[in-house]
Structures are given as C-alpha cells and as structure tokens.
C-alpha cells in the first residue's frame, strides 16, 4: 500500500521574479475558472492550482534547446517556459493570435520544443524517442516530461522507462504527485511507490517535499547536470497538492479536506512570510491577467475556428 507523504513548508521565500511568475500562473488559472463560470469558455480545462511552483523551479534548470513534454494539466508548464498568457488564453478561447490557431485548446499545445497532450501516458514514450535523438544529435540536451501519479496506471509509462534505462537516455521525468487521480486518492490506485517503480528499472529517483523554489533548484541542479553529462534518466517526484477540481467542477473531496490543503499551500505561506512584497506582486499579477483576458476576449475568432 502506498504510504502518504506530507509536503513541508518551504524554508525560504521565492525572489521577486519567481514569485511573480508563480502568482501569474495562479491568476491565469483562476481567471480560466471565472471565464468558464460566466459561459465565455467552452470545452474543459484542468488547472494546476497548488502546483505552480514546480514548473517555475524546473524551468530554471532547463535550456531553451531542451524539449519539454507537458500533459492535460499543463498551463503552468507552458507559462513558465514562454511567459505568454495572451497566446495561451487565445488558444483556449479560439481567438486570433492563438498559439496553435485555436485547434489545440487547453490540452494540446505545440510551440518550438514544447508539446502538451491530454492523452494519459502518451508523452513519456514520445519524450524517450526525442531523448534518443538528442543523445545522438545534440549531446548535452535533455527531454523533460511532466506526468502525474495517476499516469502510472498506463503501461506505456513502463515501456518508456524500460527503454530509457536500457538505452541510457537523457530523460528527466517530473512526477507531480498531488495525491489524487481525477477523483481517486493515490493510495487507492497505486500499489507500492513511484520510487520503487523507478528502482525496478535501475533509474535514480529523488523525492521533493518542499515548495521552496531556490532549495529545489539547489537540490536538483547537480542531478539534472548528471542527466546531461552522463545521458541517463532521472525521476524527480514532487509531493504536491491539487487545490482545484480535476476539471472545472468535478471535485468529490470534502470541503474540509480541500480547505486543509489550501492552508498548506505555497500561496498562503508566502503571503504570511512576505507581508511587504506579496500583496503588491499578487495585485500586479491579477491586474496583468485581467488586462490580458479583456484584450483576448475582444479579439475575433481564429480563422481556423471560424471556418
């Protein structure tokens, strides 16, 4: 039986740049839920509320020439890499200036060396294939793939880990273990542990239980450097929290359980620890996303969506 692991409060607070980016991602995700509530968005979306610090920390360890593979809960991954809320919102809304002309929507984004997909487990074998190419053609570059604990129910994950280990591929697997897969607690769908699964393939595993961005980077920097220099895979598992529903309004958890997670959230901790700069940066992030949303909403539809 999988044993629950408790995330701990960070020892330090992010610098202004990192905190601003985390708050921007938070504001973006909240704005999406607000737009859906007003009937201004269609389809579905999966927010990363509570997990914003992970892509912010990881992006600081990546090179623009690295490949990043995201998933259905990938807005934070995209925003940490490109700082482009307008392009992403236009994509989700099907407006002019959309990243993928409005045909990818919330889950399926392709830009430069970034790719997201809503297909569970699909990105890991693709990332392994790209890592093989990088090993042969671009030594020193790596493929970074974000997955969740629920994705470990897919067989393609194990096939990809097997190949990555056998062929010594420069593959960084970032596991955002938020303790729940859609509406099923991790302890009810995952026997053993993610560390045990990595060990079964001879792959190094590192557990991160803090949301301190600087500490995360200090810890992972030599490990990620080894992925590059030795061309070997690494699994980094983050113990994190999903504050929002799986999608827009399908949260079956008791309100008290969600509130307990909010009280442990990086947002609440940073607000208390940074009473001087936090309100200013938070207000700036919200105002920026409000302005982006107003401007994108006023745009005409993408020609592909229109046709």
Automatic annotation (TrEMBL):
Annotated InterPro entries: DH_E1, PDH_E1_Alpha_Subunit, THDP-binding
GO biological process, any: pyruvate decarboxylation to acetyl-CoA
GO molecular function, one term: oxidoreductase activity, acting on the aldehyde or oxo group of donors, disulfide as acceptor
Pfam families attached to this UniProt entry: E1_dh
Species this chain originates from: Microbispora hainanensis
Protein name according to UniProt: Thiamine pyrophosphate-dependent dehydrogenase E1 component subunit alpha
Lineage top rank: taxon: Bacteria
Keyword Protease: no
Keywords: Oxidoreductase, Thiamine pyrophosphate
Residue ranges of every copy of the Dehydrogenase E1 component domain listed in the record: 22-264
Cofactor(s) it depends on: thiamine diphosphate
């Amino acid at each position: 039986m999988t044993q629950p692991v408790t995330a701990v409060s960070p020892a330090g607070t992010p610098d202004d740049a990192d905190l601003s980016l985390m708050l921007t991602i938070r504001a973006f995700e909240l704005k999406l839920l607000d737009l859906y509530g007003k009937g201004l968005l269609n389809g579905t979306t999966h927010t990363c509320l509570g997990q914003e610090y992970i892509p912010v920390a990881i992006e600081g360890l990546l090179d623009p020439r690295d490949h990043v593979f995201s998933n259905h809960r990938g807005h934070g991954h995209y925003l940490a890499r490109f700082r482009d809320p307008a392009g992403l919102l236009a994509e989700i809304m099907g407006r002019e200036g959309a990243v993928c002309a409005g045909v990818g929507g919330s889950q399926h984004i392709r830009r430069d060396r970034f790719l997201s997909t809503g297909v569970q487990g699909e990105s890991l074998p693709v990332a392994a294939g790209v890592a093989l190419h990088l090993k042969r053609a671009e030594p020193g570059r790596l493929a970074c793939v974000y997955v969740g604990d629920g994705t470990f129910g897919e067989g393609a994950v194990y096939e990809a880990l097997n190949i990555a280990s056998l062929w010594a591929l420069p593959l960084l697997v970032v596991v955002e273990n938020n303790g729940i897969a859609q509406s099923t607690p991790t302890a009810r769908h995952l026997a053993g542990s993610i560390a045990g699964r990595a060990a079964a393939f001879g792959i190094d595993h590192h557990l991160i239980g803090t949301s301190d961005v600087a500490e995360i980077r200090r810890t992972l920097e030599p490990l990620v450097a080894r992925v590059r220099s030795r061309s070997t895979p690494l699994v980094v598992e983050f113990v994190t929290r999903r504050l929002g529903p799986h999608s827009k309004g399908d949260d079956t958890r008791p309100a008290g359980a969600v509130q307990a997670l909010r009280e442990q959230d990086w947002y609440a901790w940073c607000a208390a620890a940074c009473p001087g700069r936090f309100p200013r940066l938070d207000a700036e992030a919200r105002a920026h996303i409000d302005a982006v949303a107003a401007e994108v909403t006023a745009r005409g539809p993408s020609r592909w969506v229109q046709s």
